[in-house]
Amino acid sequence: MGIMQNLLADTLNIDLNKNVGQFGGLTGLTFGGIVSGLIRISLVVAAVVFFFILVIGGIRWIASGGDKAATEGARNQITAALIGLVIVFAAWAIVALINTFFGINIFNLTITSITG
């Protein structure tokens, strides 16, 4: 199995090694599990995207060759990437604080069913 498949399976808590029919491994999925998996994936993807934007901005700065406009553009890109990373990690910190103070773990979300 590839590294990305293992990462995705670990993020969504899916056991890919079950051999129960074509969709047998998906029987344990719940709505809360899907939502929490999507939240985790979106945080990871956003952090990776902003990191690469930061790296590309650094490369642009190095390659600017002293051109004032190119240096300014690269500096703005680096600033935007750093602000994006701060927002992503602030979102993660807010989720951790909600878990600490209220006991609601959004990364392991369970939604109880309402029976009438």
Relevant terms:
116 residues, elongated, mainly alpha, 3 helices
Strand and helix map with partners:
Elements: H1 3-12, H2 31-63, H3 68-102
Report on this model:
- The chain has 116 residues and is mostly helical.
- The chain has a domain at 30-108.
- Helix content is 67%, strand content 0%.
- It has helices at 3-12, 31-63, 68-102.
- Helix 2 (31-63) packs antiparallel against helix 3 (68-102).
- The model has no long low-confidence stretch (mean pLDDT 80).
Total number of helices:
3
Q: How many DSSP E strands?
A: 0
Strand fraction equals: under 5%
Structural Rg = 20 Å
Query: What string gives the helices and strands in order?
Result: HHH
| Alpha-beta content class | mainly alpha
Q: Please give the share of residues in helix.
A: 55-70%
Q: What do the pLDDT scores average to?
A: 80
Termini gap: 44 Å
Q: Which term fits the overall shape?
A: elongated
Low-pLDDT runs: none
How many strands, what sense, and barrel or not for the largest sheet? none
